Amino acid sequence: MMSLDEAIKGRRSVRVYKSDEVKRDLIRECIEAATFAPSAKNGQQWRFIVLAGESKDKFTDLYRKELDKLTINVGSSYGSCTMMEEAPVVIMVWNTNELGWITEGHSVSAAIQNLLLKAYSLGLGTCWIGDVFYTYEAIMHYFKKPWELIAAITVGWPDVNPGPRLRLSVDDVAEFLY
Q1: Of 18, 68, 73, 95, which cross-links 148 as Cys (Cβ 3.0–4.6 Å)?
Q2: pTM
Q3: Which helix (H) or strand (E) holds 59?
Q4: How far apart are CA 90 and CA 52, in angstroms?
Q5: Chain-centre distance for alpha carbon 126
Q6: Which residues lie closer than 8 Å to 67 by C-beta, 6 or more apart?
Q7: 162 touches 20 (CB < 8 A)
Q8: Contact between residue 122 and residue 29 where contact means Cβ atoms under 8 Å apart
Q9: Percentage of the chain modeled with pLDDT above 70
Q10: How far is it, in rounded angstroms, from Cα 124 to Cα 119?
């Protein structure tokens, strides 16, 4: 079994996937791990829509068409779109925002981190995609949910093994005041 430190330090954003199917049970394990994240007042504000096969293809077609309509430079978004097209699974992550607190979005982000770590522990690759915000209104209309879109997550069997990236040290990022 993988240790927590191995999962935290070994997980990478994977952008190239094999076309092999990811079984629903594995996705369920990842989402279950997400549900154990801390949440504001135990509100468990996260919601997930899992897209695969035809449903994923319909969504990514819409996303690409909406990107083509934009007049601003969203170059990296086309790469994210291609990644979603090629990954076997895309998970749309939402915040129900039932209490209207700004901290509810933080709770959903914690759930995403749990999902990513669980996926890595199962041998899956993932990438947290924020580029979906360029077409936020179209995505909201497409899914017709009353929730707030937080991210899209690609999931699949990695076709690359990204190496570690340079990290800032604790001394670079923390100030200790006692």
Answers
A1: 95
A2: 0.95
A3: helix 53-69
A4: 7
A5: 7
A6: 74, 77, 78, 81, 134, 135
A7: no
A8: yes
A9: 100
A10: 5
Q: Which amino acid is at 95?
A: N
With residue 8 as reference, give the H or E element that holds it: helix 4-10
Residue 86 contacts residue 96 (beta carbons within 8 Å): no
- Please name the amino acid found at residue 117: L
- How many helices, marked H, and strands, marked E, lie in the chain? 7, 4
CA 95 to mean position of chain CA atoms: 13
CA distance 36 to 57: 30
In sequence order, the 6+-apart residues with CB closer than 8 A to the CB of 94 are: 46, 47, 48, 49, 108, 145, 147, 148, 149, 150
Q: Can you state the angle between helices 24-34 and 103-121, rounded to 10 degrees? A: 140
Q: Burial code of 120-148, b = ≥16 C-beta within 10 A, e = fewer?
A: bbeebbbbbbebbebbeebbeeeeeeebb
At 133-174, the pLDDT tens digits run 999 999 999 999 999 999 999 999 999 988 888 999 999 999
End-to-end CA distance of the chain: 37
Burial of 86 (0-12, 13-18, 19+ CB in 10 A): middle
- Here the tokens at position 80 are 């994210």
